[in-house]
Amino acid sequence: MLGCVDPCDDTVFNRSQLRVLIPELRALANGSAAEEAEAVHEILVLTAQVERKAHRYLVFNGD
Is residue 31 within 8 Å of 23, Cβ to Cβ? Predict the structure, then answer.
């Protein structure tokens, strides 16, 4: 799912897509330098908020 993030446009993930995205983020954090791992952990905190309630999405804003 990380490969689907478009750096030039908005990318939106719904709760169902997070089931695939979260393990990818965890793997990325484990294989990254400390600064990158910290950024990934911040994204994982956001995924937890999306999972808590219906009709929430994780949005990456391009450009």
Answer: no
Give residue 63's pLDDT.
Answer: 86
In terms of C-beta distances under 8 Å and separation of at least 24 residues, what long-range contacts does 23-31 make, across chains too? 28/2
Domain that holds residue 42: 2-10+19-60
**E-only strand ranges, 1-63:** 11-13, 58-60
Q: CA of 23: how far to CAs of 8, 9, 30, 44, 62, in Å? A: 24, 23, 11, 10, 22
Tally of structural domains, the chain: 1
- The Cα–Cα gap between 57 and 18 comes to 9
The whole-model pTM stands at 0.89
